[in-house]
Amino acid sequence: MKKFVNDPKQFVPEMLKGLALANPDTLKYVPEYNLIGRASGPSDDKVSIIQGSGSGHEPAHVMAVGKGMLDAACPGDVFSAPPMDYVYETTKLWNSAKGVLLLVNNYTGDRMAFDMAQEMSLADGVNVKTLFIDDDVAVQDSTWTVGRRGVAGNFFVIKAVGAAAEEGASLEELVRIGEKVNSVTRTMGLALTACTPPAKGEPLFDLGDDEIEIGVGIHGEPGRRRAKIVPSDELVDILLEPVVADLPFQSGDRVALMINGLGGTPISELYVAYGHAHEQLAAQGIEVVKSYVGEYCTSLDMAGASLTLVRLDDEIERLLDAPAEIGYRVF
Amino acid sequence: MKKFVNDPKQFVPEMLKGLALANPDTLKYVPEYNLIGRASGPSDDKVSIIQGSGSGHEPAHVMAVGKGMLDAACPGDVFSAPPMDYVYETTKLWNSAKGVLLLVNNYTGDRMAFDMAQEMSLADGVNVKTLFIDDDVAVQDSTWTVGRRGVAGNFFVIKAVGAAAEEGASLEELVRIGEKVNSVTRTMGLALTACTPPAKGEPLFDLGDDEIEIGVGIHGEPGRRRAKIVPSDELVDILLEPVVADLPFQSGDRVALMINGLGGTPISELYVAYGHAHEQLAAQGIEVVKSYVGEYCTSLDMAGASLTLVRLDDEIERLLDAPAEIGYRVF
Question: Which domain does B199 fall in, by range?
Fold first, then answer.
């Protein structure tokens, strides 16, 4: 394993420490709960939005903390759900008179942790609701999931409810908006290589020199099938067709299109993929009006990408257009 | 080779097409010259700032086109200097009454193309000056360079002169600012893996399963030495010590610190590296007041990172703080 890793057990705390050191004005780090929150703390004028998940998907979710996005994130170890008490303590620390919204990608371990934390928080008098995200069309159930997995489409839920929360929307309203965005968001990904978790020290699964995993999960879970590598346009078609067919997206739709890198694929390749997806959609009468190309939800150093479509309406488009700050400096 | 690539000869044009399709409101694409420029075109109220280089370093430089940054970029093929006529035509198209500033990373091929383009543009009556960037402390001369190489520190020159240009600074003033920033910027990088250029289809050089290349160039050029992989803190020290010693940076200095991913290293690892670098600098009395963690200048899919320090003064800090827009959507 060749990585910027010291003791693998310290990988997540060291990453979070680095993130906090790089952003002293905007982020607060509470090591006991792997908690990254806004330095400003909670406000009774807005619902607090919290996401937890396994680590290894950065920038999701610790780097999505900022104005117009999350209020706090409490990740677990690499590819492990956060312990229930991380979620519980984070919920209490970010309690607001307007309530707390917990966002959870649909994995069994995450659901258990968040369900328990919600119950305990409710017993403590916190007004808390939970919203599950399950945008991955690849498989119905999988290694770590009953029902569909939550993957990169999660970004759009965060962005939309984050924007609405800044405007003062109620907890019930945020749940409505989040459920709506999730209901019109579809994703599928493919792996060109496996990823190497620091604690394992070797690739999580075997993939031949000319093989790809179609419909891969963000923890390296198997997808729909293995195939031989093909040119980029065909790779994109392999992702686009099931995504379009699932909702289905139709001629006349206005959409957001995301090409999300899984960690080891450079942005140059993501733009090659984007161009073809955009043109294929245009040929079907589906208009891309918002585009997102880069890394949003990764799988450590996995090479590969996922493709997400969101069907826009006026409300969703307005919320995606709203200003947002992120917990890490870009330019 | 497993990549999002169709015909390798079309890799760069397809990337640029994707970039333009994703940003129709802000970017203009002129295929004849690999030109990505601001959709608004040149303005006689500001100096036009143009950078060209080989491709394969994205987001540098085509994705650094935007308000407060570059006016246009005209890359060559992967790891190849732009043809002289790309630079010449771009200079003419972005001509401004206030002049044109060409930014060039110090590589022999790039210098030749830009020197000739500058001469021809001057003959056409364009008021054009060129600024060379050579921030890499790793080697004095190298495979493609006489003198030091220009690498990720280039970002700070773009950001500073970009901000000053928006304020209406003269061409002479921009040259002064750019030279000053370059003179206080130092970088060194290391490779954990080789990169794979699309046209070659296999890794550019051989690196053992436990080997790293210290002081690597962004085209995979050899650096100072090969070594065995060591823990992250030691990797950071290997980069930090020569960078600090070179200027030298000293106790009492205020600095910007960049940990730049080379393409295949995920941002989680970059933050692990950042945390140690920040703390080591603090221990030496060097205060990090601005931080940059992510991908700024890559080498295709190479795993690895570079570390850049910039010694700040009030002018540089103010220019780095100025607002900027980039040619690709983040959030």
Answer: 185-313
